[in-house]
Every structure is written in C-alpha cells, then in structure tokens.
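**User:**
Everyone, produce one record:

**Assistant:**
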Amino acid sequence: MGGWGAQGDLTDLEDVKKACKGADCVWHIGALVGPYHPYEMYEKVNYHGTLNVVEACKLLKIRKLIYSSSPGTRFDGSDIEGLTEDELKFPDTYLQSYAETKAMGERAALAACDGDSLLVTAIAPHQVYGPRDQLFLANFLKAGKKLRVFGKGRNKISTCYVDNYCHGLILGEPALFPGSPALGKFYIITDGEPVFFWDMIDHALTECGLTSIKKRFALPYWFILGLSYLSLALGALVGRKFRLNPFAVKMMTIHRWFNIDAARNDLGYEPLVPFEEAFAKTIAWYKSSWIPENMPELAQV
C-alpha cells in the first residue's frame, strides 16, 4: 500500500491512517488478487483491510471514499449477457475466495456511506488489461504453446483498459455529494461493446509470434470442467492450488458482458480509449518490453 509517499500494511490500521492523512478523498484499490492464495489471506486483506480504510476515513474525517470493486462479486458461474448492476445479485455461494472477500469489502464500504460525513461509491472494472499487466494476458502468453480453446470458443466478455479504469475511478470523486445518485451504489465500467474472448486471446498470441490456437483442436466444456474438478481434488490431497480449477474454466467459457448505462448516467462515464486502440497498445508493449525479457525464445520468432 502506498499513498502520499507512504508505504505500509493494509491490514495495519496505523499504517492506513498514515497513508490517508491529509487526503480529501481516498481511492481504495488495494487487494489480494488471483485465485491461488489461502482464504485467510484474502479475508485479511480484502475485507479487514477495507474495514481499516473505512475506519481511517472516519477517524481522519475524510469525506469521500471510492472503493474499487469487481463484477466478480456477483458471479455465480452462469452466463451474464448485457445485465445492469440492479439485475446482478450477490450469489449465495462463491466459486472463488477473491470474489467472496471483495464482496465482503464492498458491502462494508458501501454500508459506511451515511450521505453526509462519509460519502462512498464502488467502481468495478471488468477484465482489466494494459501494458505492464502480469496477471491477465501474461498468463495466456506463458501458456500459449500448449493452450487450447475451452468449449465452443464463442463466449463474449466485457473488457476494461487500464486508462478507462482510472478514468472511471476519477469520475467517482465529483459524483460524491449529498443527495447524489452514486451514494452507496456499485457501478461497472468497461471499454463499451463486448468482444469474443477467445478471438481476443488468439489475436494476442499470434501477434506475439505464437501459433494460432484456432489451429488446434478445442477441448469440450464437459471434459475440461471434469478435469478441473479432478485437479481441485488432487490439490486438496497434496496441499497445492493448481491453475486449472472450476472457477477458471467457467470464467473462460461463460458470457460476461454488461450494460454500463448506470455509469454513463450517474458518473458521466464513457471509455476514453476504444478497445481496438487499447488492445493494440497493450500488444505493442508486450512485444517490445515483455517477451524479450521473460520469454527469450519468443523474441526469435
């Protein structure tokens, strides 16, 4: 965690207070991400860390708080096709600890909004990507030589370029005032129109010199999902978390795209950079800066 030149531990209230001191508005974007950590760590950072941020705002009389959430807090593993925030509900059970604890943090942050002394809203980008990202596209590039399409490969998703994500976060601040429609609400922000997930991945791979995954046979959904449950059981036996798991399979095969009219209407949000331009910039960065450093064999392709 860093702010105003401070570094510290999000789970330590005193550190959080030091980082927030002197601020008029706090953007809480710190989280433990990825699907491979123990539940206790997710809970400690994503939930209790958020409680610390809320408490620091109250103690320091900081009036505005923007919580960076995730649409994954509403995922139950089924298709999402053009739904609004009001149509998305918190599931009874979660497929992944990250999403569960982010939901806990979001609920705590929004519940602290009193409409006067503390004004809070939640901004949730979906599938963030961009230069320097080591979580999303980098993992597909690392697996590119063995990767295959899961299922039919025609599922659509919403994406959010990092600049568009930052733009949405920034717009949260002026939207926080007494009586604002944004108070205590959750907004999804994206690049706009959805894209075909596997087409996007295939384009990234071929642009970076790897073989098109469309030239390989696809893995049937029932087969890869069954294999993921076997991987989950094996991981439980040996005390490890494998990359192949039911959550990952579902996220790569279901439709995940959203109606962002609420963000447009209440925040004045429109993506600054269209997907085609944003993805081209992202691929250019991976080709020039990431591949030679991390995968020298691809630099020769």
In short: The first helix runs from residue 13 to 20. The two ends are 39 Å apart (CA to CA). The CA atoms of residues 81 and 257 lie 5 Å apart. The longest strand covers residues 119-125.
